[in-house]
Design a protein that fits this description.
Layout (H helix, E strand, L loop, with lengths): L8 H14 L12 H12 L23 E12 L5 E11 L8 H12 L2 E2 L1 H16 L3 E10 H4 L10 E8 H4 L1 H12 L9
Parallel strand pairs: 1-3
Antiparallel strand pairs: 1-2, 2-4, 4-5
């Protein structure tokens, strides 16, 4: 994958200024005079995952060996829907079964989710990207990723249904092949939170 082009802050500022003028605002008004610069810096921050390679986080810990399921649940995530440039936010649950004892630090899985989320995204693609990257880099027996998120483009506009959650999953390897393994992971995710429903 070729490196992503860096954010052109001046170009973003010009675009925001045009949007403000387009909706009828006075771009010289004190309250929004500096808004284009603020928004440009914000986009540079929240879309900064475009400039990072998430695979760099998945370095195997050779001193440890583990061959049972590893689950990191309720990983907070914040992303931007590429359709309306509105945020969606929620949690990711990531489970994998190591092969040959290949594991990574628990925080590294969260960093992968964060890096891939800090891009213009759709939830379905984000879910698959996390699963596919872990499969590719760690070559585990299986991976399951579940993301639950509320989308502002559905809560603030359009259907106007706040608090509704979109749940997506990506299932690879042994989690796809074995309903018992899949059920065990879902039970562990549900345990104590009851947050995943009707998967």
């Amino acid at each position: 994958m070729s490196p992503a082009k860096r954010t052109d802050l001046k170009k973003v500022e010009r675009g925001v200024r045009l949007i403000l003028a387009g909706v009828g605002e006075d771009v010289r008004r004190a309250g929004i005079r500096a808004t284009p610069q603020r928004v440009a810096r914000m986009f540079n921050e929240i879309l900064g995952g475009r400039h990072e390679n998430p695979a760099r986080h998945l370095t195997v810990i050779h001193s440890e060996k583990h061959d049972e399921m590893v689950l990191i649940k309720d990983i907070p995530l914040y992303s931007m829907c590429e359709h309306h440039l509105l945020p969606f936010a929620g949690v990711a649950h990531v489970a994998y079964i190591p092969k040959g004892g290949r594991i990574v630090g628990l925080s590294k899985i969260a960093r992968v989710v964060d890096t891939l989320a800090r891009r213009l995204q759709v939830q379905e693609r984000l879910t698959k990207q996390v699963a596919d990257l872990i499969m590719d880099r760690l070559q585990p027996l299986g991976v399951m990723v579940i993301i639950e998120a509320e989308h502002m483009c559905m809560s603030m506009r359009g259907a106007k249904k706040p608090k509704s959650l979109t749940v997506t999953s990506a299932v690879r390897g042994s989690f796809r092949a074995s309903s018992v393994t899949r059920t065990e992971a879902i039970a562990l995710i549900r345990g104590g939170t009851g947050s995943v429903r009707n998967i």
